Amino acid sequence: xxxxxxxxxxxxxxxxxxxxxxxxxxxxxxxxxxxxxxxxxxxxxxxxxxxxxxxxxxxxxxxxxxxxxxxxxxxxxxxxxxxxx
Length: 85
Prior knowledge:
The protein has helices at residues 16-22, 28-41, 47-81. It is mainly alpha-helical. It has one domain. Keywords: Cell membrane, Membrane, Protein transport, Translocation, Transmembrane, Transmembrane helix, Transport.
């Protein structure tokens, strides 16, 4: 006799791992069908969001690049000052 709440129906909060514990894959075709079904559920970012996130990423990379460059120059100057080349 099954519990009243027990069911193999996916709930909105279920993760893919939890769903796969109940489902059995039968082959490569089933894998791709499941993959495309999951891709339909993805919330893809809007064009504006992609531009903003890309700009933020490039800005952070530039800032970190400058900081690493400055640190390298500082260490090189310190090494030269103590006579290590």
